[in-house]
């Protein structure tokens, strides 16, 4: 059951700074309700794990820089036992074939019907030539993974022995430039201006959906959503080809987006930042840490789920920041390194070995020690969702430990 703090509905243990931020969100704009899921923590403008429901408005700062970040999970037609001995080689091939890290480009050109979508013209309405610039970036990055907490993982469903594949990333540079561009426009600056940097203390940036900027942002956001879906599809297809496996079932969802939905008989915009939609019967993937189980959940028809505006967690929630875990960056370029963190590489390696996980890439800022146990946060939402599949990681691929990315939480 949730508690209400200063009008904010809070699941799980409240974090004071996130609650304060959620209260601040509730005081700006035409807000219907503000909520915090059990994995919440402070974010940029709106808490991660935060949901703000608006009447006739949308918040580009609430959706955030990684528009349509989300997950795709697929059940394959092979068992883990069939590939167990080849797992190290398969992970090597996945890591070498896909592109991990900031600003990475595809190793082979990618085309997709998405690039003919008429919504690309929204950028030309803003500035001549902008569509071509962003399309070039998007073509180069379709299906690349990025850094931070983004991953491509192999799982076994222990109950059946079946192998699953899942990924986690969003709209890459397209989403980041879309978000920063519209935040610039909101300040009467050119779309492509240098980003001044957003403070976590900033109040939400808001557009009326009936305004020109609001309409353009929604079109651009939806395009970034389609792009994120296409990228995750492309990535999964590559992994299935490496595994010589086929998909038998899939779950695909965003958790950074603004959805137009009907609640209590009224059309509203639900801005979920690190929160998974969970309408009755709706499936979603929720990832634990690299040393914990992940799950497929289904929203249930309950009063509490209705009170949650059909929203739930998107992950386990961090216990410590990246800097606390891995230390601060020093040096530049290829000499850029972290040092002074609370978690050592040896600690992380031992924990993963004990849980039976092979790792490619990854750093101590993503180790199992920096996240809550997923079951803990899921238990806070037991009256809103039910677990359909429980997945144990066996192989994890992430960007290298010295990648810096401020917008991937």
Automatic annotation (TrEMBL):
InterPro entries: RtcB (IPR001233), RtcB-like (IPR052915), RtcB-like_sf (IPR036025). Its cofactor is Mn(2+). It comes from the Bacteria. Binds 2 manganese ions per subunit. The active site is at 314 (gmp-histidine intermediate). GO terms for biological process: DNA repair; RNA processing; RNA repair. Mn(2+) 1 binds at residues 66, 150. Its EC number is 6.5.1.8. Mn(2+) 2 binds at residues 168, 255. GO terms for molecular function: DNA ligase activity; GTP binding; manganese ion binding; RNA ligase (GTP) activity. It catalyses: a 3'-end 3'-phospho-ribonucleotide-RNA + a 5'-end dephospho-ribonucleoside-RNA + GTP = a ribonucleotidyl-ribonucleotide-RNA + GMP + diphosphate. Keywords: GTP-binding, Ligase, Manganese, Metal-binding, Nucleotide-binding, RNA repair. GMP binds at residues 255-256, 287-290, 294, 314-317. This is 3'-phosphate/5'-hydroxy nucleic acid ligase.
């Amino acid at each position: 059951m949730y508690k209400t703090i200063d009008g904010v509905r809070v699941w799980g243990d409240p974090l004071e700074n996130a609650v304060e931020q959620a209260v601040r969100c509730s005081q700006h704009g035409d807000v219907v309700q503000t909520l915090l899921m059990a994995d919440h923590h402070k974010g940029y403008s709106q808490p991660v794990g935060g949901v703000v429901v608006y009447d006739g408005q949308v918040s580009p700062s609430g959706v955030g820089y990684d528009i349509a970040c989300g997950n795709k999970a697929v059940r394959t037609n092979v068992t883990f036992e069939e590939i167990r001995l080849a797992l190290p080689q398969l992970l090597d091939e996945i890591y070498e074939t896909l592109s991990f890290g900031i600003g990475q480009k595809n190793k082979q050109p990618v085309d997709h019907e998405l690039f003919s979508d008429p919504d690309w013209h929204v950028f030309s309405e803003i500035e001549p030539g902008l569509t071509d610039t962003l399309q070039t970036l998007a073509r180069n990055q379709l299906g690349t993974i990025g850094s931070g907490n983004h991953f491509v993982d192999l799982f076994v469903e222990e109950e059946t022995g079946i192998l699953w594949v899942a990924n986690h990333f969003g709209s890459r540079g397209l989403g980041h430039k879309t978000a920063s561009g519209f935040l610039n426009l909101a300040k009467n600056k050119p779309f492509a201006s240098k980003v001044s940097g957003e403070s976590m203390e900033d109040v939400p940036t808001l557009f009326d959906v009936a305004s020109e900027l609001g309409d353009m942002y929604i079109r651009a956001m939806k395009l970034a959503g389609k792009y994120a879906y296409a990228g995750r599809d492309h990535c999964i297809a590559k992994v299935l080809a490496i595994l010589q496996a086929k998909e038998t079932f899939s779950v695909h969802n965003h958790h950074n987006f603004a959805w137009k939905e009907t609640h209590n008989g009224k059309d509203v915009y639900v801005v979920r930042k690190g929160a998974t939609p969970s309408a009755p019967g709706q499936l979603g993937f929720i990832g634990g840490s690299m040393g914990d189980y992940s799950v497929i959940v289904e929203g249930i028809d309950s009063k509490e789920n209705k009170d949650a505006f059909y929203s739930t967690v998107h992950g386990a929630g961090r216990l410590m920041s990246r800097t606390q875990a891995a230390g601060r960056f020093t040096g530049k370029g290829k000499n850029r390194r972290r040092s002074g963190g609370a978690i050592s590489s040896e600690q992380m390696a031992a924990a993963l070995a004990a849980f039976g996980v092979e790792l490619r890439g990854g750093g101590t800022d993503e180790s199992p020690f920096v996240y809550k146990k997923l079951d803990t946060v899921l238990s806070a939402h037991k009256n809103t969702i039910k677990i359909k599949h429980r997945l144990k990681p066996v192989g994890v691929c992430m960007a290298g430990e010295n990648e810096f990315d401020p917008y991937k939480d």
